[in-house]
Amino acid sequence: MERRQFLLGSAVLVPTWGFGLARADDDQPTPEWDQLREQLFSGRPIATDGPALPILEAPARAADAATVPLALRSPFDQSASRYVKTLFLVIDRNPTPLAAIFHFTPESGRAEVETRVRVEQYTFVRAIAELNDGSLHLASSFVKAAGGCSAPAGKDPAAAAANLGQLRLRAEAALEEGPRRARLMIRHPNTSGLAMDQLTRFYAKPHFVRELNILYRGQPVLKAELTFAISENPDFSFRFLPGSGGELEARVVDTENLSFTSRVQVGGTGGG
Amino acid sequence: MPLSGSTYVGLLSANLPSRWLSVRRSWRGLAAFAKAAFALAGLAVFGAVHAQTTAPLPVAEVAPGVFVHQGRHEENSVDNAGDIANIGFVVGERCVAVVDSGGTPAIGRALLAAIRQRTALPVCYVVNTHMHPDHVLGNAAFVDPAGSVRFVGSIRLPAALSARTAVYQSAISLSTGEPCACTGGEGSEAAALEARPVPPDLLVDGEMSLDLGGRALHLRSWPTAHTDNDLTVFDEATATLWLGDLLFEERIPVVDGSLRGWLAVLGELRTLPARHVVPGHGALDLRWPDALVPMERYLNGLVVEVRTALRARKSLAETVDAADPAQLTGWKLAEEYHRRNVTAAYVELEWED
Ligand SMILES: [Zn+2]
């Protein structure tokens, strides 16, 4: 009852389609978040204000429940003395509220991930940053579900399965100093196994990308622990420090322990 | 500097589906269907009883023996009870084939009442043109405990339905007035049980003909287009082609399969010799194949819009945000579906080149 009233309130607060930043009035407790917060952080204080809050970009309404673009960004560059160690992605009302965990190092340049997730219901999405000093910082955003009860299922699972394991790893051109953007695209059905076959009465086996490691010149840049909350054909944009150039490598492992690797040579800043 | 590693791996791996089933209500509902599914065969009797008391759905005879009810250009709602798609039936000398059953069992029952107004012949086939709830959730009204009604669909329909069961139960609870999980409600167990999609037991992989007694229906499954399980029905006697949602008229098309696949399928459909066509949504007196033109124009426009964004290195979020449904004045529900189509187009076309 309380929640429904609240939902009606949000409908007024979030009338546009824009991809907005999380607002202070988005920070509302839910039973799912209370439970997960206790499991993950057991009573540690979590800041919802201040300069270290992560930036969470999410649409006010999901256009397609199967593919909701999200961005999690640290507001500051990484340094040896102050850096984001981990970004947690939580989607309160998904079957898997803890959707993904991203680990960074000072060499990541900036802690930042853009990806796409499945969102079945009206829900809060949350980004929690854990800094190297152990402090926790939370940004939340409310996402309304897609219209027409659009389903978070894959559109062409046969095509996704046929192309399974294809990777595309690209670094953006060196336009500026500092952390450079790169993107990894993965062909994978990333299925939940939650759908029962109506004829056989069996549940399919879950099959999704569970771990991602990005290395630059052999050093870790990003490590992600993932669930099937990530959309079919998982997609990740991130940052790294190119320095004088070198090899960027992506290693992907799924729940069947299939592993896929892709490497790309990157030029240094100014070196093209 | 090493990464902090897998401190939380325990929590992530604890999130295995078996555990989740006990966590989320919607998935618990899914498990309940497994147990209750066939116990519900009684629905047929239920349906038959209702057929006498339910007001028949208005239908038009678009060709001799071919009856179609035109759905409204709206989203599912309590008011329309899921009556948003074109559904109907073909009457042979031996029996009747239903083509799509509507968005709720109530609409299915109203369709059955319309059949009973016109013939006493039994229903022998319920054909579903694809997985979408407005076309399949009326199936429950036609379930027959003796198993004499065959449910017919593309070979890829069962898997597509399975993957969407939980969400469709929400769709139906919305259109029957129960709170909908899609809008944050929980839905009642009873509404959800009745919303169980009835899967096909006769699968079409390529082509198949059904005999209604002196009348043949030719079915054909298509490569991924509107969805991955599109099926067309051709009534030989009147050259009437039921296109399901391969053809939208007036209501904006929804890309839930493959944009390029759909354009390719349209190219083939255009060559089929039809005297009458029944779109999944829209008018029943369309000229063939001219009826394809507005939709082809929209889909080609999507391709151009999204390829332009991809070449400009726009992200998915930027591309969706820049989309402007207000420009699509010729299409109803553009505000509700155009951004979804842009999303689908983007994730398909980004793998080109
Ligand atoms: Zn459809």
Please sum up the structure shown:
The complex is a heterodimer of chains A (272) and B (353). Chain A has 272 residues and is mainly beta. Helix content of chain A is 11%, strand content 39%.
Protein traits:
heterodimer, A: 272 residues, mainly beta, Immunoglobulin-like, nine-stranded mixed β-sheet, four-stranded antiparallel β-sheet, 3 helices, 11% helix, disordered N terminus, B: 353 residues, alpha/beta, Metallo-beta-lactamase, Chain A, seven-stranded mixed β-sheet, five-stranded mixed β-sheet, 12 strands, 37% helix, 17% strand, globular, binds zinc ion
Overview of this protein structure:
- The complex is a heterodimer of chains A (272) and B (353).
- Chain A is mainly β.
- Chain A has one domain (3-267): Immunoglobulin-like (Sandwich).
- Chain A is 11% helix and 39% strand.
- Chain A has three helices and 16 strands.
- Chain A has helices spanning 2-13, 31-41, 157-162; strands at residues 19-21, 46-47, 55-59, 68-73, 84-91, 98-104, 112-117, 123-131, 136-143, 167-171, 180-186, 209-216, 219-226, 235-240, 245-254, 259-267.
- In chain A, the strands form three sheets. In chain A, strands 2-9-8-5-6-13-12-15-16 form a nine-stranded mixed beta sheet, with no helix packed on it. In chain A, strands 1-3-4-7 form a four-stranded antiparallel beta sheet, with no helix packed on it.
- In chain A, strand 15 (245-254) and strand 16 form a beta hairpin.
- Chain A starts with a helix and ends in a 5-residue tail after the last strand.
- By secondary structure, chain B is of the alpha/beta class.
- Chain B has helices spanning 9-14, 17-21, 25-36, 43-53, 105-118, 133-136, 157-175, 189-194, 259-269, 293-311, 316-322, 334-349, and strands spanning 60-63, 66-69, 87-91, 96-99, 123-127, 150-154, 202-204, 207-211, 216-221, 231-235, 240-248, 276-281.
- In chain B, the strands form two sheets. In chain B, strands 1-2-3-4-5-6-7 form a seven-stranded mixed beta sheet, with no helix packed on it. In chain B, strands 8-9-10-11-12 form a five-stranded mixed beta sheet, covered by helices on one side.
- In chain B, helix 4 (43-53) crosses helix 5 (105-118), helix 9 (259-269) runs antiparallel to helix 10 (293-311) and helix 11 (316-322) runs antiparallel to helix 12.
- Classes of the chains: A mainly beta (272), B alpha/beta (353).
- Chains A and B meet through helix 1, strand 5, strand 6, helix 3 and strand 13 of A and helix 1, helix 2, helix 3, helix 7 and helix 11 of B.
- Zinc ion binds at residues 130, 132, 226, 245, 280 of chain B.
